[in-house]
User: Fold these one by one.
Assistant:
Number 1:
Amino acid sequence: MKLDVLYFAWVRERIGLPKEKVETSAATVAELVEELKAREERYEAAFADLSALRVAIDQELTEFDAALDGAREVAFFPPMTGG
Amino acid sequence: MKILVQEEAFDFGAEAQAFASGHTDMGAIVTFTGVVRDLPGDPLDRMEIEHYPGMTEKALTKIAEEAQSRWNLGDVLVIHRHGTLRPGDMIMMVATAAPHRVDAFAAAEFLMDYLKSRAPFWKQEFTADGGAWVAAKDEDEDALNRW
């Protein structure tokens, strides 16, 4: 499965890019995170503390145990600070 | 319902006037405006607001729809800016129209609480020391529990 993976705020800064295509067979967001962490140190640094992160699948907030079945876009970011 | 996500400044007076006009059955209009606040003792040069184009509009629409389902509202307006803002600049506004003020006030507070922690915006403050991401506050998350 080919996913668009997006990063925002300090997650984007740590990983060093806003968006990339990822070929993965991960079944869940958590599995995708493990695959990314295994790639390089900068991913390990960005995903070190999942409690400090939020995730969206296809632009809907979800949880790290959510299934990626049918997903096109996954985004990782810190807790939001709007308003 | 009107949801605007934009980089450019908005005219608060004109938006509020337009929103409040043209109803004969709305007895209450409530508006809230968020303004970039300077930092005491550590002057703020600017704030940069990043967002998630596409998701931002969807999240704001969902929050506004939720407000409409919970209270008796005639209309909802949300404007939120992104990009570079300076102290004193207006960041965002919400407006609610309802037959009665209790609904208009409650819905405006609900909109504010939710768009602080459920709309994908991230603020970075720049001072003489450089940039720092604004951390989400526990009390902002706790504020959602009251609804």
Number 2:
Amino acid sequence: MTVAVEKPEPAQQVEDAVPELKGPRRKVTRPMMVGAILVVWLVLFAVLRGKQTLTLAAADLTGLHRWFNDLNDSVGANRNSNPLFLYFFNEIRLVIDNLVTFVQDLISQPSGDRPVPQIGWLGVVGIAGFVSWAVGNWRVALLAMAGFAFFGLQGLWQESMDTLALTLSAVLVALVFAIPLGVWAGLSDRFNRIITPFLDFMQTMPTFVYLAPLTLIFLIGPASAVIATVIYAAPPAIRITAHGIRNVPETTVEAADSMGSTRWQSLLKVLLPMAKRTVVMGVNQTIMAALAMVTIAALIDAPGLGKTVMQALQSLDVGTAFNAGLAIVIMAIVLDRVTTASSTRAEQARNSSGRFLKWRRPLLGSGAVVVVVLIYLSHTYLWAAQYPGEGTTGSHIANAADSVTTWAQDNLSGVTNAFRDAITNGLLNPFQSLLTDSPWWLVGAALIGIGVVVGGWRSGVTTAVCVGLLVGTGVWSDAMTTLASTVVATVIVMLFGIAFGVWMGRSTMVDRLLRPTLDAAQVMPPFVYLVPFLALFGATRFTAIVAAVVYAVPVAIKITADGVRAVPETTVEAATAAGCNTWQIITKVQLPMARSALTLATNQGLIYVLSMVVVGGLVGAGALGYDVVAGFSQSELYGKGLAAGLAIVLLGVMFDRITQAAARRTSA
Amino acid sequence: MARHWRTGAAGLAVLGLSLTACGGAKVGDTSSGSDNSSGSSAKCGTFNLAVNPWVGYEADAAVVAYVAQQKLGCTVNKKDLKEEIAWQGFGTGEVDAVLENWGHDDLKKKYITEQKTAVEAGQTGNKGIIGWYVPPWLAKAHPDILNYKNLNKYASKFKTSESGGKGQLLDGDPSYVTNDAALVKNLKLDFKVVYAGSETALIQAFRTAEKNKQWVIGYFYEPQWFLSEVALKKVSLPAYTTGCDAVASKIACDYPVYNLDKIVSAKFAKSGSPAYNLVKNFNWTNEDQNTVAKYIAQDKLSDDAAAKKWVDANQAKVDAWLK
């Protein structure tokens, strides 16, 4: 990994040039400096095109890739004799397997000699309503009950309950680790610095890469599925908990200290209660992330809705896949609204009348009695245990989805093809050839230069390290191809993000109308819409870009809208009074003042786009995504897939650090 | 107060329901009717069957599982797994059998020769054919395209936004080794291999091409359910001879015909389970598999229903497996 140390010459020059420009002559703006770097890059590209591009053919491997292969093989060969497995991993597996099986016996799978689970649909709907009401309010309770009843109408009751069982178990396991770690990271800066790279790694490493090794360690079964989900879903809870603890006002903690509370007391009585609202939001994000894993976990035999989606995909059955995807969306929306309601409940209760508080306790008590009756009924009687009906609503939904897709495929493909060719030839191809046909050290130097200009010195150093490691992975050229598509996708995401974000930020009505659609786009498994996209755009890089945009746009829109809304009302009023028209208010007041939100939106948009690289590999994007998928499918390519996964992580870390540093700078 | 009333009313309604609905069937009353095989299940026990993710395999698994359940009284656990993960399961006891293996010499070497956790269990009778295919309209309009020598003549027609000025050869299910990049180079074809990345993407590409009369040539294989929807035509490459594919970068010949075979775990082979016998004897034709695959993929029957339909019509074949 010596390449990381030998920094290429041009980078040095650019870096040296920066402070000089920054100091005396303030007139040289950052965009101008980035422009200068690009011009130098283009000139050198014209001269050096095609040299030292570090290309590697699809079936070729480097030494590192072979070493990863050998490592993987030796784990497999020694599994049954190694004490680490016998006494450590196997125990973990047993505990988690038992947990999942227990929840499944309760709500989804036949248990013991019963042909049905212990609690039937009526009981589960009752519990869902009661718990939602107890932790939230009656509105979300109704939503929860309606949502759960809808699973039955879709003909997906058992699948939904399997997914719920697995998700709940994974979230439980994730929180057992995440909350203590989050508190620790909130209290100690040092631990926070140590754990952040690990969290980045867990969130951006494609699941496909560690799915096969996981089943080697924890065997095929619920334990592997739960652990795969935990790896992806725990980081948000850790980060947000730490954030919540950090944001408790210094003075409050000092007050507690001065009254003589021990560290432990101030943690339990002051910090945690005050951070509760934020911690619950962390739990919410963990649940969402866990649901995003449902389809991928199906590849290692995780039961539930994911299997329905994957199986339907094999015969390109869009309707069935959509029906199951819709169930996942509904589950996500119900769980999201319930946890959100629970995080604000305490405040709302304080604000409402005392009358309500007085009645709350007896009401909860009688609700509990009703739920117990419902559970008893659903345990005993068949009509309450098995969901009645054939799930005809589900087949109606499937048919409707089928006809919509067929219509779109028949009528839109001419337009979509022209659009695809315009973007691919006009934007993507030139940009990609600039990245892949330039010598690697030129691209690296340009990236480092941009990192320094946009994010400052520290992000320049991070970029240099990432560039070095990227070269080390042996998939530099593929990484550049992926980078080109990623940047194009992020630009499109930001165009939509700003347009819709401003619209939503300026009107509560629009916000209320758009938000459910955005939620659905975020949690609908991409596998569901891949088939129609393939029909519209073919197996191309552009299809991958469209899929990534669909997934990443909601986040960008939501963050932008929040930023626009946070602009003080008085400022907007003052501008209106000064005679600005709407366009001027947006471009001169609201967008500039929401600049740090825009940077954050770009950051999140990019990370979300990167998380779709693997899905892109399934629809023709090639490059890193294909390497990962092929590594998952062919044992001799395993090492290359792992290296490609690492490259995706490195790209993510690089851009995250640059944009975060830029965000800090703009908000400062 | 209103809230209180609402809940109270709901509670009363439920209580009322519970009292009046006592006549409903109780859980456990009906269970005796559905599984009548408890007598013989002791002999077979559980049978862990891997299901790899393609419809042809699903058809194999549907029929074998149905027969094992109905005739042998086994408890069949079907596990949806990718190939490599399924093979890993042989060693850990999570998987008993893989029903349709496409070559995979790498996995055979690792798990049969080195780790000795798996053994071969004979052929399925299916012939796996891999090659380059074009949509039927194209084969009809330009019959000479079915010979690789004429491909360069049409290369410009196959150009796409992805192929960088050359003709596009759509490759792509990452599950199988392809020699296509070497083939294109060694046969001096003016084509570029573009990786579609999944079977879904390939099928959709061919489906669109046939419907809109587009020029597409790509990697495909049979038996495959999609061929009964669109009968793709195979392009002939220089014939396969033993050893012509010895050096990967020098390959200039067609893919061999794979005799698809069955792999079972070493433990399962020695267990004496009647399910092992069934797996070993299981044998049918490409046509049989296509029929069941069509029931599943196009007629949208459930696995069990599709299996039952085929088994009822082919009792003699099934009886031979059970001997």
